[in-house]
Amino acid sequence: MRVQDMNWEQVETYLQQDDRCVLPLGCTEQHATLSLATDSLLAGRVAAEAAAPLGIPVFPVLAYGITPTFTAYPGTVSLRVTTYLALLDDLLSGLHAQGFRRILVVNGHGGNAPGQGWLGEWLSRHPDARVQWHNWWNAPRTWAAVQATDSLASHASWMENFPWTRLEGVAAPEERKPLVDLAALRQLPPGRVREMLGDGNYGGLHVRPEGDMLGIWQEAVAETRELLERGWTD
Predict the structure, then answer these.
(1) Tens of pLDDT along 104-118?
(2) Across the chain, where does the E strand assignment appear?
(3) Which family, according to the similarity comment (predicted)?
(4) Which of 8, 39, 131, 228 would you label with 95, given CA atoms 20 to 30 Å apart?
């Protein structure tokens, strides 16, 4: 149940009988031939599909994240870590003040990891709240499905290539790209990162058959829904 499809009275009524909600986190950054909003599109969609049968509100995705590495690619927008943590603090504290006590954060961008580390600080100030931080793409069952399909899966590769992240009229390369040296990449400034990566894919095929992708997506939605239903600590 997307909050954009609700009014305030409906949210107030919901809070009288449930305290769960979902906050998706994304990013705006290069994804080779895919949409710059890939992380946001995937986090928002997996959250919405997981929550829909349960009637749990899903808030609009936070579409900007921490991605300084890719700022040499036009269209990439990065937040400072301090800015990002302040945003998360305001968002979670605002949800808590409204009456939400169980919040599932569905994260779609690995660079947002400082938020996961910071979360313990927020929980220490809100001991009656429960927050799960869910990196949907590398959660145990979803990542196992990815690896069973193709072990060479990475940023901007086939594993993020779904019908809703593709761009009309943009063809994906057919070759299987060797995995970049990630240790070397992490030492470089943005301009050198672009030189090393080229199109932006870290390694692997750019696209796989639709049947492969559907199976992974179904696993991701089911795993996320299970957290909403049974992932809460007393």
Answers:
(1) 999 999 999 999 999
(2) 20-25, 102-107, 130-135
(3) Belongs to the creatininase superfamily.
(4) 39
